Known about the structure:
2 domains; two-stranded antiparallel sheet; globular
Amino acid sequence: xxxxxxxxxxxxxxxxxxxxxxxxxxxxxxxxxxxxxxxxxxxxxxxxxxxxxxxxxxxxxxxxxxxxxxxxxxxxxxxxxxxxxxxxxxxxxxxxxxxxxxxxxxxxxxxxxxxxxxxxxxxxxxxxxxxxxxxxxxxxxxxxxxxxxxxxxxxxxxxxxxxxxxxxxxxxxxxxxxxxxxxxxxxxxxxxxxxxxxxxxxxxxxxxxxxxxxxxxxxxxxxxxxxxxxxxxxxxxxxxxxxxxxxxxxxxxxxxxxxxxxxxxxxxxxxxxxxxxxxxxxxxxxxxxxxxxxxxxxxxxxxxxxxxxxxxxxx
Length: 315
């Protein structure tokens, strides 16, 4: 109820106190009907994540300090497998091959995906179709891709046909120790750039258009706008892509298995392929698990370094 005073202003006479909603506790939130419905939908994913991710990872850590036989016998071995790794020339060769493969793959994938994202960041007719076509390599079977690229990098393949025009005939790339890793890196970059492109494209679309309009008014050229606006504001997306490519490079196996089988002469014998070879070729499950622990440690180290270099406070 409101009344009017002598000065003509309205004054409220309603003395009913405002109703303040009761603050919910964490316990009430976790046990609310909505939370219970969420648990039902999350339960299948959590079950499979626990069964096929967490438990195998923990069992792998256990195997790295144990001897395990096909009969199911498990015996504590201490750090024996890690000491053997330090003394194994094959392991150090695998480390070298993996690092070279990673150093080649990441720049190729980043440059290709960043270029394609910039090209797709336009308002043109049919652009949605182009984006879908660029994503096709991601959903293509790695085995099928490997078989096709075996022909592409063969002595009579299309790449060598082009190189012969310039007077260079390197022969089969996959049979050359110096060319096998660049060939595999190009295959990996082609296979992954579609997914990375979508991530970077989403980051570009999130940049306010007003920044580019202001830069155009100041006379900034296209390269200057890309360098001083797009790249700095794209750092979180770039960091995420760098991490993805690092993990994929250290876990690369399928195309290597199909295309080279770790050869020639261990020229593509990566750490992941060594894990497979030791476990299922020599049945050294404990030793293979020790290699897996090293791969995990090295991958984390690379991610931390990338976080320091390009992550910044925005990542």
